[in-house]
Amino acid sequence: MPESPGGGDAGAPPTTTGVQKPQTDQNAAEKTNADPPVLSKNAQKKLAKQQRFEAKKAEKKAAAKEQKRRDVERKRKEWEESLAGISEEERAKLLESRRSVRKERMEKRSLEKESKRERLTVAREQGQNVVVDLQFSHLMNPNEIHSLVQQVMYCYAVNGRCASPAHLWLTGCDGEIDSALKRIPGFDKWIIEKENKSYIEALCDRREDLVYLTADSETVLEELDLNKIYVIGGLVDRNRWKGITLKKAQEQGIQTAKLPIGNFMKMSSSQVLTVNQVVEILLKFLETRDWKTSFFAVIPQRKRCQSDSEGNAEDTLEEEHELNDDLTASKRKCVEEVPSNS
Q1: Would you say 246 and 256 are in contact if contact means Cβ atoms under 8 Å apart?
Q2: Which tens digit of pLDDT belongs to each residue from 197-256?
Q3: What is the pTM of this model?
Q4: Which residues form a coiled coil (predicted)?
Q5: Is 43 exposed, middle or buried (0-12, 13-18, 19+ CB in 10 A)?
Q6: Distance of CA 136 to CAs 145, 148, 174, 200, 252, Å?
C-alpha cells in the first residue's frame, strides 16, 4: 500500500504548527493498522494452491449437481414414457411393482441401520477405544477446521461399516470445532463419546492406559491392546507444528507410540497421515491383525516410494480411487445411517 505524501520523513513538507504532528502520528497509526500482513513466497504459493483447489472443487461440485439433475430428469421422462404406452391394468401392476421395490429398499436400509446401531453399542462396551484429540482448533484456519470435520465424518462412517467397530471418542469439542461438528446433520445421534473436556480430564481414571499415537515417538506399536486407549491428534497441516503431539504427551506424562510403517514400506515424504487414515488403519488391523495389509489397503500410493509401490501399483491405484470416492459417499452415509428417533 503506497504511503501518503505526508507520511514519510525526508520528503515531508515542514510542519507549520505543533497541533498537526499528533494528527500525522494518528494517520500513520491508522495506516499501519490498515496494512494487510505481508505473506512470504511460500505462503503466497500455498494460498494460491488452496484457492485453485477450492475453485476446482466448486466446479466439480457444480458439475456433479448438474449431472444429478439431468439424470433425475432423464429417469422421470423414461418412467412417464413407459407408463404412456401401456394399458391401465399394466400400469397398475407396474406402479405396484415399483412401490414393492421401494418398500424392500427402505426395509433393507432400516435393517442396516439397526445392525449398525447394535454393532456400535457393543463396541461401546467391548470395542477398542480410539480418541480423536480436538484441542488444536486454535492452531488451524477455517479451511483446515473444515477439513478436519470432514475427516471425522469419514471416521464415523467407516467405523460404522466395520463388522467389529472401535469405540470412538471426540475430546476437546469446544469453540469453532464444536460449532462445526454440530452443523453436521444427525451429529447429535452419533453413537460416539463427545466430550468438551480434554481426554486427560474425561479419562482421568484410566490415565495409565492412554497411548498417544505420534510419528515422532521412538516407541513402535507392535500390537493393539484392548485395555489401552489410543489417542490421535486432530490437527491438519501438522508440518507447521512438528513434534507438537509428542511434546504434549510428554508434558502430560502419558505413553506414546508410532505405527510400524517403516517396517513395511518407505514413505515418499513424512509419515504423518490424516486422522481418517490412522483410524482406518487401526480398524483394518483389528480386522486382519496384519500391519502390512492394513498399510497397503489405506495409505495412498502417492505417499509411498516407488520401490514399495511396484507389484501393488494396479491394486493400490484402484484402492486409492475407491478411497477418494468413499470419502464423498461416506459423508452421505454418516448422515443417512444415523440412528432414528424411533
Answers
A1: yes
A2: 999 999 999 999 999 999 999 999 999 999 999 999 999 975 678 899 999 999 999 999
A3: 0.68
A4: none
A5: exposed
A6: 9, 10, 10, 15, 16
Q: Among candidates 177, 231, 226, which has minimal Cα distance to 199?
A: 231
CATH architecture of 127-336: 3-Layer(aba) Sandwich (3.40)
For the chain, percent of residues with pLDDT exceeding 70: 77
Catalytically active residues are: 237
Helices 88-126 and 41-84, axial angle in degrees (round to 10): 140
pLDDT per position as a tens digit, 22-58: 444 445 444 444 455 677 888 788 788 878 888 888 8
3-state secondary structure the chain: CCCCCCCCCCCCCCCCCCCHHHHHHHHHHHHHHHCCCCCCHHHHHHHHHHHHHHHHHHHHHHHHHHHHHHHHHHHHHHHHHHHHCCCHHHHHHHHHHHHHHHHHHHHHHHHHHHHHHHHHHHHHHHCCEEEEECCCHHHCCHHHHHHHHHHHHHHHHHHHHCCCCCEEEEECCCHHHHHHHHCCCCHHHCCCEEECCCHHHHCHHHHHHEEEECCCCCCECCCCCCCCEEEEECCCCHHHHCCHHHHHHHHHCCEEEECCHHHCCCECCCCCCCHHHHHHHHHHHHHHCCHHHHHHHHCCHHHECHHHHCCCHHHHHHHHHHHHHHHHHHHHHHHHCCCCCC
> Within its chain, how far is the Cα of 6 from the centroid?
51
Confidence of residue 2 (pLDDT cuts 50, 70, 90): very low
pLDDT digits (tens, 9 = 90+) for 285-341: 999 999 999 999 999 888 887 555 444 444 434 444 444 455 555 555 555 444 444
Percentage of residues of the chain with pLDDT beyond 90: 53
Find out whether 286 and 128 touch, Cβ atoms under 8 Å. yes
Q: How far apart are CA 101 and CA 322, in angstroms?
A: 28
